[in-house]
Amino acid sequence: MTESCSIVIFGATGDLARGKLLPALYHLDAAGRLARGTRILACGRRQPDRNAWMTVMRNALAGSVRGELDEEVVSRFAKRVDYLRGDLRDARFYAALRDTLDQSHEYPADTVFYMALTPSDYADVLENLDDAKLLDESRGWRRVVLEKPFGNDLPSARALQQKLAQHLREDQIFRIDHYLGKETVRNILVFRFGNVLMEPLWNRNSIDHIQIIHAEPQGIKGRGATYEASGALRDMVQSHLLQLLTFVAMESPVSMAAEALHAEKLKVLKSIRPIPDDKVTQFAIRGQYAAGTVNGNKVIDYRSEQAVAAGSHTETFAALRLHIDNWRWAGVPFLLRTGKRMAEKQALVAICFKQPPQQFFRASQVHCEASNWLLIGIQPHECMRLEMTVKAPGEALATRQTSLDASFRKADDPFNDAYEELLLDIMRGDRSLFLSYQEVEQAWRIVDPVLQAWSQPGDDLHFYPAGSWGPSAADDLFVDPCRFWRNTLEPCGCGMRKTQGV
Ligand code: BG6
To answer: Which of 162, 344, 432, 467 is deepest in the core (most CB within 10 A)?
Structure first.
C-alpha cells in the first residue's frame, strides 16, 4: 500500500487518460491498492463541470476496465475524483489549481502531476506550474510524469531536457515507457537474474542472434496527424524496442535500485555501434502498408487514412540490425522489427542459439539445420519457451523440434495492466522502471542517422500488403541466408528462411 497523495491529470479528457490512466486507477482502487486518502483531480477543457465529467469518466471506465464495472467500486472511486475545468495556456487556471489543492484539506500535500498531453505542451505547463509555486516542495513532494516522445530527435530532446531542468530535479521526473510496466517484460529481469541456468549461455559463445519483435494488426486508429510526425521508428523502436533490448542485453546490476538499473541499461545503449549515415539501407528497412486484409476485413492503405498526406513516406514498418560492441555481445546481431497492419498481434523476444559444431542427425534434405530458440512471449501469449531438437520416433536418427514450456501465468493469477504498476511506482517514488535522461539521449543517438535518411522520400520505402508480415526486404537484414524472422511462437522446424507464415 502506498501513502496518500494527490494525482493531478492534465489532459484528463484525452485518449490516454480515458483509455489507460482512469481504468488503471479504478483497478488499483478495486484491489485495495490505493491509499484511502488518495485524491485525483482531472483537469481538462472539454467538459463544463464535474457532473459532465463524471459521465465521461463512467463511460471511459465502462469501455476499458477488465470485466464488468463494479458499482460499489465506481461509487468509491468517484468520491476520490474531482474535475477542474481550465485552459492550460491561461495563467488563471494555475491560480485556480493552486487554490483547489491548497484550500481543500482533502488533497494530500504530496502531488503527482501527470502530463497526459502533447509533448510540445510540457515546457509551458511546467513554467506555469513553477510560476504559480505549484512545484514548491516545502509542504510535500512534487513528481511530474511525462509520456513519450521525449523530443523528436537528439537536438530537440536536449532542448526539452534543458527546459525541464530549469524547473525540476531529475529525481522528480518520471519518463514513462509503458512496456517496462508489463509483467512479462519485468519477468525478463527475473528470468535472467533469478536463475543461474541461462547465464553461462547468455553471450556471444552460444547465441547466434536476437530478435525483438512487435507486430500489431491495428492501423493508426485515427491518429493520422500524430503518426505522420512520428512514424514507426520514433513511435516504437526509439522507445519500447530499445528498452526491451536493454533488458535482454544488460549486465547484472548491483541492485534493483533505479540508479543501478539505469547505469547498466545506459552502458548497453552506449555500446550500440552507430549506424553510418551512408550505410543506412544496410542496417535499416522501412515499409508502409498498402491496402489488404486484416483478420478477414478489407482495410485501406496508409496513404488513404485520415490526415495522412497522399504521397506520405512515413514508415509504418521499421526493421533494424544493431550491433553491441562489448565483450558479451561482440558479433551477435540484434534485429528489431515493428509494424502496423501486420498479420497478428505479437510482441516477442526470440533468442536464436548457435548450431552444434557438427551435424550428425538430419531431419530432412534442407540445407539449414534447426537451431535451439528461447522465445519470450510478451503479448498476447505470455510464455517462456525453449525449442530443442529431439529424435523423431520410428525413423532411424531423424530429428524433430519440441519445446519446453514455462507458462508465465496460471489461470487464476491476477492480471495487472502496465499502467497500474507504473502508477504505484510513481506514488512510491521508485524510478527504476522509468527512463533516465541519458537513456533517452542515447536512444536518439542510435536512431537519428536512420531518421535523417528516412526524412526524405526514396525508393527504399517498401510497400507491404496490410495483413502480411511486412516487406520481404527486411529478410536481407540477416546476413546469413539460413536466418529468418520468427513471426509466431509456433515451432518453426528447420532454419530455412521464409518458412514461417509469410
Ligand atoms: C504506443 C504506440 O506507445 O504503443 C502505439 O504509440 C502502439 O502506436 C502501442 O500501438 C503498442 O503498445 P502495446 O502495449 O499495445 O503493444
So the answer is: 467
Please tell me the distance between residue 301's alpha carbon and the centre of ligand 1 in angstroms: 20
Closest CA to 271 of 290, 250, 294: 250
DSSP H or E run through 153: none
Q: In whole angstroms, what separates CA 417 from the centre of its chain?
A: 13
Buried-exposed string 257-295: b where 16+ CB fall within 10 A, e elsewhere: ebeebbbbbbbbbbbbeebeeeebeebbbbbbbbbbebe
**Span 316-367, pLDDT tens digits:** 999 999 999 999 999 999 999 999 999 999 999 999 999 888 777 655 545 5
Kindly give the pairing relationship between strand 142-147 and strand 111-115: parallel
Q: At what angle do helices 183-193 and 242-249 cross, to 10 degrees?
A: 20
For residue 450, pLDDT over 70 is answered with: yes
Residue from 147, 119, 333 nearest 240 by CA: 147
131-147: buried (b, 16+ CB within 10 Å) or exposed (e) per residue?
Answer: ebebbeeeeeebbbbbb
Q: Read off the pLDDT of residues 141-164 as tens digits, 9 standing for 90 and up.
A: 999 999 999 999 999 999 999 999
Q: For residue 391, what are the β-bridge partners?
A: 399
Q: Which three cell numbers stand for residue 337?
A: 522489427
User: Considering only CA atoms, which residue is closest to atom 4 of ligand 1?
Assistant: 236
Based on the number of CB atoms within 10 Å of its own CB, is 361 exposed (0-12), middle (13-18) or buried (19 or more)?
middle
Which are the contacts of 20, defined by CB distance < 8 A and separation ≥ 6? 64, 178, 417, 419
Q: How far apart are CA 398 and CA 390, in angstroms?
A: 9
Pocket perturbation via mutation, ligand 1, pick of 64, 118, 175, 178 by most ligand atoms within 8 A of CB: 178
State pTM to two decimals. Answer: 0.94
Domains for the chain: give ranges and CATH numbers.
6-147 (3.40.50.720), 182-352+407-412+437-477 (3.30.360.10)
User: What separation in angstroms does the CA of 5 have from each of 112, 133, 153, 336, 427?
Assistant: 7, 18, 34, 39, 7
- Distance between Cα 316 and ligand 1 center (Å): 12
Q: How many CA atoms lie within 13 A of 447 on its CB side?
A: 33
240 is known as an active-site residue: yes
Count of Cβ atoms closer than 10 Å to residue 89 Cβ: 11
Peptide bond just before 356 cis, omega within 30 deg:
no
Q: How far apart are CA 27 and CA 4, in angstroms?
A: 16
